[in-house]
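Deliverable D2.4 — example input (structure tokens):
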């Protein structure tokens, strides 16, 4: 299953980021804690050469906590400053200010030696669509200064937000990259909602999600829906449809409706805390 999505405004947004990067001291990159590698735009590493780097494992409340810790160690060992956060609830946010100071320690010391005092740290907030950048900024700033939405593509242009005397944030639109070389990356991004559902085959995707859960989170489907989960994914999906009343006239199972229900439950955490990429499987 080949999933690709790269609308025209993303090309423009990438060019704008290239222009703005020279103004920046720090890149704050949000990734989805359920898919920490797949939700990293590989272009960011190229754009952010020689800049201080920080990764926020956002939506960490939806991800497997054991894997959250493993990914935090993974990125830290690669030289990133890492914080686990839940932008919606504010969990982990109190650690960010100190981490920004730590990440930019060299810049602050350099300014001090030059006699420059109180110049704010300028940080660019980057991430793929629907990873939670605007929610993070609003929670961090304590006010609704960035538009939010639970679908990709809400932030269309850049905007500067002054948090305090010490930090200014540049919000940027969520951008993907032109081609997913690994088709599993596109599938994982479709799972978490970073690609618009209306261009996807959710029924086919739901079978892939069921197969993944069978292999990595046995018991999750049974606990949520009360179905036997050992069979073929199509049978399991059909059983969920019956349990949840996803049935058309004539007793025909409504696979479209049950697939949408399954993804809604997964994305909201009602299936439990699930991580789709495990550190040990990257080695």
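Example output (designed residues):
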């Amino acid at each position: 299953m080949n999933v690709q999505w790269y609308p025209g405004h993303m090309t423009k947004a990438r060019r704008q980021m290239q222009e703005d990067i020279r103004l920046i001291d720090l890149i704050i990159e949000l990734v989805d804690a359920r898919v920490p590698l797949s939700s990293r735009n590989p272009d960011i590493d190229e754009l952010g050469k020689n800049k201080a780097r920080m990764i926020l494992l956002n939506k960490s409340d939806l991800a497997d906590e054991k894997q959250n810790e493993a990914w935090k160690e993974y990125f830290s060992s690669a030289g990133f400053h890492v914080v686990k956060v839940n932008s919606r609830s504010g969990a982990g946010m109190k650690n960010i200010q100190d981490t920004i100071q730590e990440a930019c320690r060299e810049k602050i010391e350099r300014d001090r030696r030059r006699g420059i005092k109180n110049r704010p740290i300028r940080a660019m907030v980057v991430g793929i669509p629907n990873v939670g950048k605007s929610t993070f900024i609003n929670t961090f700033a304590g006010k609704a200064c960035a538009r939010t939405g639970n679908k990709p593509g809400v932030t269309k242009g850049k905007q500067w937000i002054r948090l305090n005397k010490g930090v200014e944030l540049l919000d940027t639109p969520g951008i993907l990259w032109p081609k997913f070389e690994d088709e599993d990356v596109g599938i994982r991004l479709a799972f978490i909602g970073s690609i618009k559902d209306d261009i996807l085959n959710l029924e086919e995707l739901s079978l892939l999600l069921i197969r993944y859960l069978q292999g990595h989170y046995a018991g999750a489907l049974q606990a949520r829906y009360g179905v036997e989960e050992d069979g073929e994914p199509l049978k399991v999906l059909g059983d969920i449809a019956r349990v949840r009343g996803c049935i058309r006239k004539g007793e025909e199972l409504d696979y479209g409706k049950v697939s949408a229900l399954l993804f809604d439950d997964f994305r909201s955490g009602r299936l439990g805390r699930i991580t789709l990429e495990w550190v040990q499987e990257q080695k």
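The radius of gyration is 20 Å.
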